[in-house]
Design brief:
This protein is α/β, with parallel strands linked by helices. It contains 9 helices and 8 strands. The protein has helices spanning 15-26, 33-46, 54-60, 91-100, 104-120, 130-134, 148-161, 168-184, 206-220; strands at residues 4-8, 29-32, 66-71, 74-79, 82-83, 123-127, 140-145, 197-200. The two termini are 13 Å apart.
Length: 221
């Protein structure tokens, strides 16, 4: 039987960073569900489909194929066979993904793939509704969060290191807006599963968060 670890939480909480590190240390497969939604969003953007046009988005889902492959232990996301792992990390793609992930057909297409992966392998999966909807029977569920200020500062520093022009206040507002959108969407809103353990990383380093979750995992084994 496969062992599943579900990590949910708001944008910028460090879910992907933590999940990747945990996967390496526990020899699990890391599944970045957010990357899948970003791939779908990239397709919509490339085809000039407006985020409000649910009918066009639902129709486009029929021609989009998202799959994942692993290269040197790292997840690569393929959009209709094209590796888009780097392109989907752009800020505008993330915003489009947050807006379009609310639609039933988008979620249906990707959740089926995610559940199949988890049924066959020991996986660590992160996203917004993994513990509540995608993997409700996961043996370990974590709700990883941090304050808006902490998440904005992390994103600000990240962009500065890349040489990108950015404004901390604008980033704070973007994060707060995404939180509201994710928590109030009609389908699979972001919330802490009843049996999930809350981990607030506001005052924790990466290694401390990883060790905290590893201890939770050990208690479940």
């Amino acid at each position: 039987m496969s062992f599943n670890i579900a990590i949910d939480g708001p944008a910028g909480a460090g879910k992907s960073t933590i999940a990747k590190q945990l996967a390496k240390e526990l020899s699990f497969i890391y599944v970045d569900t957010g990357a899948m939604y970003r791939s779908m969003a990239l397709y919509f953007m490339r085809n000039d489909i407006a985020k409000e046009d649910e009918a066009a988005i639902s129709d486009a889902c029929k021609t989009v194929e998202v799959s994942i492959a692993y290269e040197n232990g790292e997840q690569q996301v393929l959009l209709n066979g094209e590796n888009v792992s780097k392109e989907i990390r752009k800020e505008e793609v993330g915003k489009m993904a947050s807006a379009t992930s609310v639609y039933k057909e988008v979620r249906k297409k990707l959740v089926e793939l995610q559940q199949k992966l988890a049924a066959d392998k020991d996986v660590i999966m992160d996203g917004r509704d993994i513990g509540t909807c995608v993997l409700p029977n996961a043996q370990v569920k974590i709700y990883l969060t941090a304050s808006v200020e902490t998440r904005a500062e992390r994103r600000y520093q990240e962009l500065l290191e890349k040489g990108a022009a950015c404004d901390l206040e604008v980033i704070k507002k973007d994060i707060a807006d995404r939180d509201y959108q994710d928590m109030h969407r009609e389908i699979s809103p972001l919330k802490q599963a009843e049996d999930a353990i809350l981990v607030d990383s506001s005052d924790m380093g990466i290694e401390e968060v990883v060790e905290t979750i590893k201890n939770i995992y050990r208690e479940k084994c």
